[in-house]
Predict the structure.
Amino acid sequence: RYTFLPWLGVETYGQVEFNEFWRLATRGLGGVGFIAKWSPSRSFQVLLGTAYMFEFNRFSDPYVYPNEGADKVFHRWSNYLRLSFQPSRIFSVQNTTYIQPSFENFSDWRLLVDSSLLFRLNKWLWIKVSHVFAYRSVPPVGGTKKVEPFDSSLLVGLKSSILLWRPSHKRKKK
């Protein structure tokens, strides 16, 4: 993520995933887009992002994308809203909602809602407890078991952040 104004920037991202529930043998994605930030107070922050996202899915045999096949490439419009509240240095609450329609077919879209509690262990490491709700308007078909369009999970993990550099937005006086 790079900010060129205090409230506006660009970001890139990538991910590789295996997901047995969605019958995904491999899912790879990458994207680039814009991000806007609003912080009405020191403890509350709103992020709004929009991006182009390239996505490749390889479904587990015998599941396929309807009328396509086991391998499918998507070009998606990825949008998200993140609300963060950090009332103290050691505790934070976040909610991020993603909506990702396909450019080829806007009725093919994904929704993901990630609600998290974070507890700081040190300057760069947090324990994260999340409830994740996911919806696919077009789930894969085939096989003996129907793939439901909804998924919900409770996750516990570690989150780290390392700031390599912080761009300065202040101009030096001459």
